[in-house]
Write a structure and sequence with these properties.
Layout: H1 2-21, E1 33-35, E2 42-44, E3 50-51, H2 53-76
Antiparallel strand pairs: 1-2, 2-3
């Protein structure tokens, strides 16, 4: 069971990194970034959330915390 948890974790991390690399929304699956007029910041055209490096790092942190929880739960069983 641990192998599948690890594979899922790696897949989630890679997905967030790909979104970051291709300037896609960290939260939406099909969200594309649009420039906020007069600013260097971007926001998603689908959900409207602003995208900064912190948003992507936050999604990576969520994946890490979920992985730890799943790993601990599988070790207790």
């Amino acid at each position: 069971m641990t192998a599948s948890i690890q594979e899922e974790f790696i897949e989630k991390i890679m997905k967030v990194i790909d979104k970051w690399s291709f300037e896609m929304c960290a939260f939406c699956d099909d969200g594309a970034m649009i420039s906020i007029e007069g600013m260097v910041d971007f926001k998603c055209n689908k959900c409207g959330k602003s995208m900064t490096p912190v948003a992507y790092l936050g999604e990576i942190a969520k994946a890490v915390f979920n992985y730890r929880d799943q790993l601990e739960n599988s070790n207790k069983e």
